[in-house]
Amino acid sequence: MKVVVDGIPLDLPAGTSGIDAVFAAGRDVPYFCAHSYLSPVGACRMCLVESGSPRKGKDGNFELDESGQPKIFWFPKPMAACTMQATDGMHIRTAKTSDVVAKAQAGMMEFTLLNHPLDCPTCDKGGACELQDRAFEYGYGASRFGFDRRHADKHYPLSDFVILDQERCIHCKRCVRYFEEVPGQEVLDFIERGGHTFIDTEEGGLPTGFQGNITDICPVGALLDNVARFRGRNWEYDHTPTTCTLCPVGCSITADARNGRLERVVARENREVNEVWICDAGRFGHVFASEDRLTVPLVRVDGELRPSDWDGAILAIRRGLTGMNPADLALYLNADSTLEEGAALETLAGLTDTPSVDHWPRYAANVETTATLTDVATADAVIVLGADLGEEAPVLELRVLEMLRGGILPPEFPHGTAIADLRLVERPTRHPERLAVIGGESRLSAHAGMRVSANGHNALARLMRPDTDDLRAAAKLLAEVKKPVLILGADVLNTVTREFTAQLADLVTRTGAKVLPISAGPNSKGLAHLNLVPRAGGLGYDRLEEARAAFISRLDPATHGLPGRARGFTIVHDTHLTATARLADVVLPAVTNYEKRGTTVNLEGRLLPLRQAALSAGEGADLIRTLTALAEALGVRTRIRGLKSAQALLADRLGVDLTDLPESGVIRPLGVTFTAPALPHTPQLWKERMHANPERRGSRVPDRADRIATWQLTGQDGALPVGGDD
Ligand code: SF4
Ligand code: SF4
Ligand code: FES
């Protein structure tokens, strides 16, 4: 399809929107309501362009101009480019070449700002506000309106996490469309009409799960993240692109730090993984990274843990392990540790010959992954077995919901993801008949056409031998569709048996289904590949109290009902003084995953990079440096002494250069199957320490009943004011 933008000829795929044609030409057009992952609505009218097309005459041929070229018939008024489809032969003019467009856009900007409070100096979105930027680029620079602006409620909490400033809202409808189209929750809408229109929720506020995404997409400072607002200006933050490791999805995020504190987490686009969304835990649950951190080593003296330095801690470890064989020191690490940290631990275990090595959480056996998140979104049926996606892998839930509304993935252009995808529709029809949930009830169950309660591996057995109408429908669906995906969650993976694996293999062969088992922990797939499971004669993590001595990195068995100590000497490496750390002989300060460099493997088997945000962690160290110090205390010299040596070793092993991973990561089948007894676990996304303490952070929001009692539109004293501006 040939399109000409400002005289620049382009060859574009059919169906391209006018706005994407403009961007494909390298030209610019302002926009507020258009959003790459939401339906185009043409609400803000900022993306105006002039457009014209050739026309065929009665004889069926194009009407030609004097030079013999098809004559362009220009539309009499500028059009919104986001809802307009570019057609073959179309000509488009932007503000760069058309005074009519420049004037229309400036006029539209003046109109948008008519009642805007213009509190840019105090608005927390300042420095990242699309309206501010576009007003500067496309506005008149002055307003012709001198009357008092409309006033509405400011700092109006939609929930504990999201604050609305009604005055700043420009009614672009992005937030409303987001809830309707992405998580499929009709909770937010326009109330009232005309000059009184405002956004609000039903009683009860916004549902926790994916509400935070509206703070990313609001083009003005109307919706703000209550955990982060007023904690820094956009230009004051150090923005670090990294990967969330709170669950096995591995969403791309940006960690914003200021003065050594992690103040904000926002979503970053990764078309293959999280598109542009993240869950509320990933966005709001980062406070622990900067609160109550352990910043120096602690050594037990006379029964009490006392601050020390690393030399003192190493000396205490050396003393504590006197008389023991290095092989007596069991080594346990959290499943969210990086691949590089895992390699360092494996190397040390090899040197000390300890068979007691483990990571947690993990399952007892590995089930091979054959589906990606994109396969889930574009499947024609999904069967979820024994999973609570809200707790195990929230963004996977969004990809399943994407499948239910047709699995339309946005096209990609050289300028990035399409800005307006004309195939997307508002209030999309969902197809619950494509989804079966077998297992316990979860949030996803509400969207499923077939729901069957089952537990453990019984879920698969029931699907293999259907005995209810819903099960028969699910089995039939699986047999009939072309691209089914089976998602396996903790409830089935906790009880994987040989029989289960055989049944699964049989089902996959018969139906051609792809399988996506949700890893037990954020990098348990990667650490299992490094074989960090108990070796012959070794003690697993659940048998910690039998070990003579143990080194426990960022695990807290004492709060999981396990003994928090080894039989003898216990070393804990953690970011906080946990219940387990309180029982230890030596506590070494650790860094969080926001301040690490390294690689993690998500549930698809995708290698994703972690980058180091500028947080102050005192003397906190990552596991590689800590293990180097531990090796020193044990009197051995390990060959992995830093990130570089770990990555060199892993590059040989995985055949991937980890120093140069692409932004979207790279899928690497990690085909190791292991069997080692594991401790069944119940995934729980929000941990206690992820909750913000609103009092301490000064972000406390008033009780909703109080808020409603005190809220009213200005001038609304009994009867609404009649017409005009209020
Ligand atoms: S609150 Fe923000 S996203 Fe929602 S309609 Fe208003 S300006 Fe748009
Ligand atoms: S879905 Fe998982 S990886 Fe993504 S933001 Fe939430 S917790 Fe983090
Ligand atoms: S009308 Fe809002 S971006 Fe086009």
Automatic annotation (TrEMBL):
Top EC class, one word: translocase
Classification via CDD domains: fer2 (cd00207)
Cofactor: [2Fe-2S] cluster; [4Fe-4S] cluster
Keyword line: 2Fe-2S, 4Fe-4S, Iron, Iron-sulfur, Metal-binding, NAD, Quinone, Translocase
Residues in 4Fe-4S His(Cys)3-ligated-type domain copies: 100-139
EC number: 7.1.1.-
Cofactor binding remark: Binds 1 [2Fe-2S] cluster per subunit.
Domain 4Fe-4S Mo/W bis-MGD-type intervals: 237-293
Gene3D superfamilies (alphabetical): 3.10.20.740, 3.30.200.210, 3.30.70.20, 3.40.50.740, TPP-binding domain
Entries under PROSITE patterns matching the protein: 4FE4S_HC3, 4FE4S_MOW_BIS_MGD, COMPLEX1_75K_2, COMPLEX1_75K_3
Taxonomic superkingdom: Bacteria
Catalytic activity: a quinone + NADH + 5 H(+)(in) = a quinol + NAD(+) + 4 H(+)(out)
Family per record: Belongs to the complex I 75 kDa subunit family.
Function: NDH-1 shuttles electrons from NADH, via FMN and iron-sulfur (Fe-S) centers, to quinones in the respiratory chain. Couples the redox reaction to proton translocation (for every two electrons transferred, four hydrogen ions are translocated across the cytoplasmic membrane), and thus conserves the redox energy in a proton gradient.
Name used for this protein in its record: NADH-quinone oxidoreductase
Organism of this sequence: Deinococcus carri
Gene expressing this chain: nqo3
